[in-house]
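Following up on my earlier thread - several people asked me to post the actual chain instead of describing it. Fair enough. Here it is, all 149 residues.
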Amino acid sequence: MGARGDDQLRAYDLLAPRLVAEYEALDPTAYRATYATLLPRGPDQLALDVGAGSGRDTAWLTTLGFDVMAAEPSRGTREVGEGLHADTGIRRLDDRLPDLDATHALGLSFDVSLLSAVWQHVACRRPPARIPQGVPIYIPKEDIGRLVF
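Reply from S.P.:
Thanks for posting it. Predicted structure:
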């Protein structure tokens, strides 16, 4: 990941309880209402939440009927989030942009990918090499300005 990325992960791990409290203070039902109606519906929908943080949005996706895979590189944030959303059936991975190697190794196809507030962690010189194929990517309008390539 590189020194900058490793430093960021250490900071997220160290500050995990405080960061998770801040994440969880936002109601995803209201926060994500801007695109909730665009998400596919029906049985057996699989979603990927990249940079899942505490799992706030991941848990919200489960309330919409999705099975969800949460990719989050911060161990501290993942562990605090697991305690908060233990009963949701979320499957969690230690994975990160730009490559999502652990996610790709699963060989799964996702119906939806959620990438929110993660692009600022990807070095400008290197955009994501691969986003899982066949995945519609919904980017909330408030996050459009954060896209960095």
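Confidence is low (pLDDT under 50) at residues 134-139, 143-149. That should answer part of your original question.
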